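#lab-general

N.A. 3:47 PM
ok so I finally got the sequence cleaned up, no stray characters, all 275 residues accounted for. can someone with queue access submit it? mine expired

B.Y. 3:52 PM
send it over

N.A. 3:53 PM
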Amino acid sequence: MTTLPTPPSLISPTTLLSLLSCILLLLLAILLSHRLLPRSSPFTHLCLHTWHLFDFLIHAIFEGSYLYHSLFSYTLLPAALSDYPHPASLGTSSSQQKKSLFLGYSHRRYGAAHSTAPTALLWQEYARADARWANTDTTIISIELLTVLLAGPSALYICYLLQHHQPHHHPIQTRNNKKVYNHDAAATASATLWFLITILATAELYGGFMTFAPEWLTGNPNLHTENPLHLWLYLVFFNGLWVVMPLWCLWVAWSEIARAFAGDGKNVDARKKGQ
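B.Y. 4:20 PM
back already:
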């Protein structure tokens, strides 16, 4: 696994650029949420929209770039020589080829560590806290494939549902200048909204656990916590954010589902009394 040099200062220019990028994406999510949601929307819905839009942007831009570098950025290794273990042939013996085979290539090393693109530098910086993100860790890549291709679009669709799940978003016709709304369509949109929020939040929590559980079980060989910035900002804060917010989303979804069942129960009782 590629070892990255330690930066000379606690906060490098790449660190500042990465943090600035996150802040700009969060501000963009806040501004778009205020613009796209009706002013009458509850504050909870505004927070949900902001979070899921920010979640989509992070998955699509940042983690999407990680997938790109994991699959397309690589360095060619020299071919094995007859005078092995000459340094030029290290890492390419037959036994090591089987161990290092990725995407069918034993003579390539993939990952952000093998690129000089701006997004690669971002992941090289994060890899100073968790070295797996600069290379081809198949567990991380497997999780990120689901995150980028499924979780990201799901978060964006949740934003759409938050904008279109009220009855007035589903007019069906006009009678005597009075609008008639399709309440069944609105109910279906609401049910889909809270169901999808529950599924996505659960998937985020599961993904976070599967990211770090292999490290915990093997003594954290790839985690570097000596630097307070790497420990508290990169590992604790950014990963903790995707624990706290999904838990909050689950609580909100559970509250809405419980309220819907309570209302349905009252309607059933009222119908029974009317019979």
